[in-house]
Recover the amino acids of this structure.
């Protein structure tokens, strides 16, 4: 079975500072990993996904994430935060075997301080 | 662009009422899903469907049912709404070969 933990339900950063959102997963088989973003009063949209092609994954809006198998982590980073990055971020996992459901973490709310 | 449309953004219902939440996707996706989102709990899967007239229970199916009579439409039904079903409901769809989910904007349900 798969599971996801996200360290920190709320993270605040200053505008221009590094953004680091943590995600650890548990999976008995090679996983697919995802980061989704949810802006206020909207649904979720995909930021990036890991499907085993490359361990460093680049996504939209300057975000990237690195798959570290030894640490079972998939942390999301962005070098310089922008006010528009304020949102809820969800890490998610799915098994790479035959179709498996996607399991979401509890989410991290990112605030960007001017 | 893929579009997943949920029929109602906001609903207020009374305890015991029957509630229908409708979801339509326009990209011919085989898979459709209903999640509920609650603060601190993330998204929890209620039901999903791989094909027309087919449904599978997710992690929290109790108190809900679904219907998929056409490929593009997936309905969530609360037979007798209760206050603990007050939540944000998110519909999503995907291709069979992909895990990437495309979400609607959500339906915020309040049960009084």
């Amino acid at each position: 079975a798969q599971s996801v933990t996200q360290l920190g339900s709320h993270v605040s950063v200053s505008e221009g500072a590094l953004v680091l959102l943590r995600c650890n997963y548990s999976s008995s088989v090679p996983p697919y990993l995802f980061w989704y973003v949810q802006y206020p009063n909207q649904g979720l949209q995909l930021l990036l996904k890991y499907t085993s092609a490359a361990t460093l994954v680049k996504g939209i809006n300057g975000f990237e994430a690195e798959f570290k198998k030894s640490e079972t982590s998939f942390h999301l980073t962005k070098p310089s935060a922008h006010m528009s990055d304020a949102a809820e971020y969800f890490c998610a996992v799915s098994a790479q075997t035959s179709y498996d459901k996607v399991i979401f973490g509890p989410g991290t709310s990112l605030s960007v301080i001017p | 662009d893929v579009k997943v449309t949920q029929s109602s953004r906001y609903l207020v219902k009374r305890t015991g009422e029957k509630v229908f939440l409708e979801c339509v996707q326009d990209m011919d996706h085989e898979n459709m899903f209903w999640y509920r989102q609650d603060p601190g709990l993330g998204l929890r899967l209620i039901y999903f469907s791989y094909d027309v007239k087919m449904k599978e229970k997710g992690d929290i199916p109790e108190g809900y049912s679904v219907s998929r009579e056409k490929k593009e439409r997936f309905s969530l039904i609360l037979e007798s709404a209760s206050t603990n079903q007050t939540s944000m409901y998110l519909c999503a769809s995907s291709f069979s070969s992909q895990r990437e989910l495309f979400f609607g904007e959500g339906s915020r349900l309040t049960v009084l």
Observations:
- Chain B is about 0% helix and 55% strand.
- The CA atoms of residues 6 and 23 of chain B lie 5 Å apart.
- The interface with chain A takes residues 4, 35, 40-45, 48, 50, 58, 90, 92, 96, 99-101, 103-106 of chain B (CB under 8 Å).
